[in-house]
């Protein structure tokens, strides 16, 4: 078999066999296939797509490219959550400790930023000392001892996805349904949880731009999960504007902490409760969404969730005192006000563009090797539907470079659209796919 022929076949829009898909996945993982050939195949897949059978084969080839975690030593039904990626999506940081505080084991594998979207692992590294490099035994011990562990995808779990994910990030081949579905599900299957709640984002800042595409992606992932015996459901949620107010690593962690202190933005809280109550149902802890939401709210109000966050940060080597003293997080040198140039209503916040503006400030990676700046980013002061008067502050830019900060300010004025009459509201939750 030759990689050249596989690329040509997909370039012509033909269906790849299971053997051809395995040849590519194994060869690329073992460094026998170079980046340029893998990139060419990814671009051919991007344009000519894969069908459901090819996507399932790609998923399982990536699962089989490395170890599979055996979590059978952990008591209870282990639940995991994964988002397809958004702007300002810090949900996992508040959700994982919140669910764990209800005595449900959360065993979560997370990723780094991808394209214009941020990654949970990068964000959590804003806690000094926090480590996501847990070996299998530490991961299991932490879930057994604290009901929570969050690890980076190690070199051993779905290593093919790890390599392909990094390559897609820099070759404009992220937003393809089959590549996203196989990437997410290979990690989830290899990391051994019994149940998976997926947050499939839809809108301007998501990889899926329309509710129909998001639903198709959700269906594909839910079917792959259920077919291999993992209880899987997907929530389709709005990403037509950033989630919450903060975009950027430390800024987002602070917002997630605020939520657990009872002061979270309403959209972030609503999504956290929706995902969390579904996780509690899959784990068998509660029977209804209402019961789940009530238990989660109780644990925010009585401080148990915040305590769990501190326990979690400490257990993974981080300085948990940051939770009580957020001034310890990395801080940007400059905070620049972005003022509205007219009266009216905020009708559109171009989430993808804001993700790119934050990335250009240093919050995300432009190449595989780029280092991210944990302190920089954007904080919105207004959201879709808010009324503004000329001169009102609509956002703040957090920057370590004055020129970059000024460019970001101008870009934000262009991408936060203010019009005379108010636009229609969009739902936060579009659908649930089971
Ligand atoms: N998240 C992933 O883990 N993989 C993707 O391809 C997109 C989002």
Fill in the keyword field for this structure.
17 helices, binds uracil, single chain, alpha/beta, 434 residues
Number of helices: 17
Strand content: 15-25%
Biggest beta sheet attributes: 4 strands, mixed
Question: What is the overall pLDDT average?
Answer: 95
Function: Catalyzes phosphorolysis of the pyrimidine nucleosides uridine, thymidine and 2'-deoxyuridine with the formation of the corresponding pyrimidine base and ribose-1-phosphate.
Domain Pyrimidine nucleoside phosphorylase C-terminal: 345-419
Family: Belongs to the thymidine/pyrimidine-nucleoside phosphorylase family.
Subunit structure: Homodimer.
Strands, helices and their partners?
Layout: H1 3-11, H2 18-29, H3 35-48, H4 52-63, E1 79-83, H5 91-100, E2 106-110, H6 120-124, H7 136-146, E3 148-152, H8 159-169, H9 177-190, E4 195-202, H10 211-227, E5 231-238, E6 246-247, H11 249-260, H12 266-283, H13 289-301, H14 304-315, H15 321-324, E7 334-339, E8 344-349, H16 351-363, E9 377-380, E10 387-388, E11 393-399, H17 402-415, E12 416-419, E13 429-433
Parallel strand pairs: 1-4, 2-3, 4-5
Antiparallel strand pairs: 5-13, 6-9, 7-11, 8-10, 8-12, 9-11
Helix pairs in contact: 1-3, 2-4, 2-8, 4-9, 5-11, 5-12, 5-14, 8-9, 9-10, 12-13, 16-17
The structure holds uracil.
Uracil binds next to helix 9.
Subunit structure: Homodimer.
EC number: 2.4.2.2
Protein name: Pyrimidine-nucleoside phosphorylase
């Amino acid at each position: 078999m030759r990689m050249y022929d596989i690329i040509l076949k997909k370039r012509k829009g033909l269906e790849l066999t299971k053997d051809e898909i395995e040849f590519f996945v194994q060869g690329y993982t073992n460094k026998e296939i170079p980046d340029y050939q893998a990139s060419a195949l990814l671009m051919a897949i991007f344009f000519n797509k894969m069908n459901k059978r090819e996507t399932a084969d790609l998923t399982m080839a990536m699962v089989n490219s490395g170890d599979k975690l055996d979590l059978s030593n952990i008591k209870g039904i282990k639940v995991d959550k994964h988002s397809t990626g958004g702007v300002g999506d810090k949900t996992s940081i508040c959700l994982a400790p919140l669910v764990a505080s209800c005595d449900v084991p959360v065993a979560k594998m997370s990723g780094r930023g991808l394209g214009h979207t941020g990654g949970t692992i990068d964000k959590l590294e804003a806690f000094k000392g926090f480590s996501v490099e847990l070996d299998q035994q530490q991961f299991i011990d932490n879930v057994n001892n604290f009901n929570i562990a969050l690890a980076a995808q190690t070199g051993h779990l779905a290593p093919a996805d790890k390599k392909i994910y990094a390559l897609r990030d820099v070759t404009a081949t992220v937003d393809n349904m089959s590549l996203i579905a196989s990437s997410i599900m290979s990690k989830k299957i290899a990391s051994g949880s019994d149940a998976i709640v997926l947050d499939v984002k839809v809108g301007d800042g998501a990889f899926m731009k329309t509710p129909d595409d998001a639903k198709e992606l959700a269906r594909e992932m839910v079917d792959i999960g259920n077919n291999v015996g993992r209880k899987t459901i997907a929530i389709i949620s709005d990403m037509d504007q950033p989630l919450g107010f903060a975009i950027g690593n430390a800024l987002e962690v602070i917002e997630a902490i605020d939520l657990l202190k009872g002061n979270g933005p309403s959209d972030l809280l609503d999504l956290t409760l929706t995902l969390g109550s579904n996780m509690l149902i899959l784990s068998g802890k509660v029977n209804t969404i209402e019961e789940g939401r009530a238990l989660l709210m109780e644990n925010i109000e009585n401080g148990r969730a915040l305590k769990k966050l501190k326990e979690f940060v400490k257990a993974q080597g981080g300085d948990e005192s940051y939770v009580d003293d957020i001034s310890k997080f990395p801080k940007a040198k400059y905070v620049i006000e972005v003022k509205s140039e007219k009266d009216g209503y905020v009708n559109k916040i171009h989430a993808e563009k804001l993700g790119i503006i934050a990335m250009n400030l240093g919050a995300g990676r432009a190449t595989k090797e780029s280092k991210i700046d944990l302190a920089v980013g954007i904080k919105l002061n207004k959201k879709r539907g808010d009324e503004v008067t000329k001169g009102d502050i609509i956002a703040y830019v957090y920057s370590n470079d004055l020129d970059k900060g000024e460019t970001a300010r101008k870009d934000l004025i262009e991408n936060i659209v203010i019009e005379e009459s108010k636009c229609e509201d969009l739902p936060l939750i579009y659908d649930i796919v089971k």
